[in-house]
Amino acid sequence: MKVLLANPRGFCAGVNMAIECLEACVREFGPDIYVYHEIVHNRHVVDRFASQGVKFIDRIEEVPSGAILLYSAHGVSPAIRELARSRDLRSIDATCPLVTKVHIEAIKYAKAGYNIILIGHEGHDEVIGTMGEAPESITLVESPEDVDRLTFTPEQKLAYLTQTTLSVEEAGQVIRRLKERFPGIESPPKEDICYATTNRQHAVRQLIEKVDLLLVLGSQNSSNSRRLMEIGLAMGKRAYLIDGQHELQADWFDGINSVLVTAGASAPEVVVQECLDYLSEQFGATVEEVTTREEHVTFPLPKELRQMMKAGQI
Predict the structure, then answer these.
(1) Binding site as annotated, residues
(2) Could you say which residues bind (2E)-4-hydroxy-3-methylbut-2-enyl diphosphate here (predicted)?
(3) Fewer CB within 10 Å: C terminus or N terminus of the chain?
(4) Domain boundaries, the chain
(5) What pTM was computed for the model?
(6) What's the 3-state SS for the chain?
């Protein structure tokens, strides 16, 4: 069996920053720390921190007054920030800067009187946070069909934004339909879909024709990971999204001579290596890493954490 290992894969700069932030807090404060939602959408990462005592919560009311609270990489709404302040929580914002960029764009367009059309998946943490910036101004769409149901007129001031972890191709279809219906619609100066999402999708599209099967390391609630699996399925290949080697089934590989392995932007490299070890041990697989694009993006730790460090609080 031949395995093509996609590069880039796995952790993006925003995920790296969020995880490093939580690791620093645990190291210095101890494990009595709260995180609003999952720090990133990956079961392996969340379980690792939970085993150390970190508490992942879905309601700010669950956090004791004065405790340390981290906001996840997906961002939160102003209402959540205000609730945290009212409870005197020591908040540290681990939101990915690329998500923050979308929040800032939403605020800017709303203040300028635009109706904002947000392309994204209902219920996703990132979408909830972005819509919370200007709920009276934002309408969510997921598909070209949703665009067809919009009741805005071409004369109204319209702008669109996108969730950062969407399929580039599917988002493009929605954007094209928006521009057909509303030729004057405004777009952000720079696209919102993040570089890491784009690069991982590009790698799968470039390499998928060379293999019989696609394995994507990532959790089921990871939007960007699901998009990678969907690309494989859309291109007629068998494709699976798994959290780790323990989910692999031997019969998946019956008649399979070549496999493409990649990982979503919140999946750690350790789970990739465990899968490669399994394929090597069970099927004598040889691995060839193929680099399709280079990545050199990094983000600093959150300002609040750096200030605490400088003040000697940690």
Answers:
(1) 12, 41, 74, 96, 124, 164, 194, 222-224, 266
(2) 41, 74, 124, 164, 222-224, 266
(3) C
(4) 2-11+195-291, 13-95+299-310, 98-181
(5) 0.93
(6) CEEEEEECCCCCHHHHHHHHHHHHHHHHHCCCCEEECCCCCCHHHHHHHHHCCCEEECCHHHCCCCCEEEECCCCCCHHHHHHHHHCCCEEEECCCHHHHHHHHHHHHHHHCCCEEEEECCCCCHHHHHHHCCCCCCEEEECCHHHHHCCCCCCCCCEEEEECCCCCHHHHHHHHHHHHHHCCCCECCCCCCCCHHHHHHHHHHHHHHHHCCEEEEECCCCCHHHHHHHHHHHHCCCEEEEECCHHHCCHHHHCCCCEEEEEECCCCCHHHHHHHHHHHHHHHCCEEEEEECCCCCCCCCCCHHHHHHHHCCCC
